[in-house]
Design a protein that fits this description.
Strand content: 15-25%
CATH topology: endopeptidase fold (from Nostoc punctiforme)
Mean pLDDT: 80
Largest sheet: 6 strands, antiparallel
Oligomer: single chain
Number of strands: 10
Length: 245
């Protein structure tokens, strides 16, 4: 009698354990399918989600974020000559993309927005100005206020421009461009593109095609004198909204 009671109790406990395990698996599956795009429970994806606080997120914004992630995985160096998988001309010759900052922006606009923009950062800047689509930065006395204003105005896909990041002989001395991706849940801003030395997110090497924190106050380069010493530091000048036109 005691042995039969123990056997029954064992079967009862096993049945309860199976039911509990089954309900847990079902719950996790249901939850994962119901998690909104901008509220993931994956910690690494949480860091890599730049649209959580952006209003009016579009499919293009999502496509841009995914594109930036995929391009980052390629670990391309700055100004590396790169051939997309499909890249061929009508003559059958492979198209080489020199992945510096402006060509990375140009390639991204072609792929995500199906738009052709000029080749260099200066020409992109001048093109935006001619179209009245360039928005100059207004520096407030308080840095936090400037950042809040930028956060409110920027949209994913905006082109970000700097001057004096390197020695150029143009007027104005626009020399660098990146693409605004969005912000995380702590209002930290991020951008995508090609950089010469900054360390991108989740990367062990410096520079190249990647996703980088965006701070309008950061100095990301300089103009050097004849001795190789920085004489003028870079300055963020504003952004352009060409993706919507």
């Amino acid at each position: 009698m005691r042995i039969e009671w123990k056997i029954c109790l064992t079967f009862l406990l096993l049945a309860i354990a199976f039911r509990y395990s089954e309900s847990q698996n079902k719950s996790e599956t249901e939850n994962s399918s119901q998690i909104p795009l901008h509220k993931t429970k994956n910690p690494s994806a949480q860091i890599d989600n730049y649209l959580q606080l952006e209003p009016n997120v579009s499919q293009k914004d999502i496509a841009l974020q995914e594109f930036a992630r995929e391009m980052r995985k390629k670990e391309l160096s700055y100004a590396e000559s790169w051939i997309p998988n499909y890249g061929e001309t009508t003559a059958g010759q492979s198209i080489h993309w020199l992945m510096d900052c402006s060509n990375t922006a140009r390639y991204t606009y072609q792929e995500i927005y199906q738009k052709q923009i000029p080749r260099t950062s200066l020409d992109q800047y001048l093109f935006a100005k001619r179209q009245s689509l360039f928005y100059p930065i207004v520096w407030e006395k308080e840095k936090d206020l400037t950042r809040k204003i930028i956060l409110k105005k920027l949209q994913p896909g905006d082109l970000l421009f700097w001057k004096n990041t390197t020695n150029v002989h143009t007027n104005p001395p626009i020399s660098h461009v990146m693409i605004y991706l969005g912000r995380d849940n702590s209002d930290k801003m991020f951008m995508f593109g090609a950089s010469t030395s900054a360390r991108s997110q989740d990367s062990q090497k410096s520079g190249g095609i990647g996703i980088y924190p965006f701070d309008p106050y950061s100095k990301i380069g300089c103009v050097k004198d004849s001795l190789g010493v920085c004489s003028v530091y870079s300055e963020f000048v504003g952004w352009a909204r060409l993706q919507l036109e």
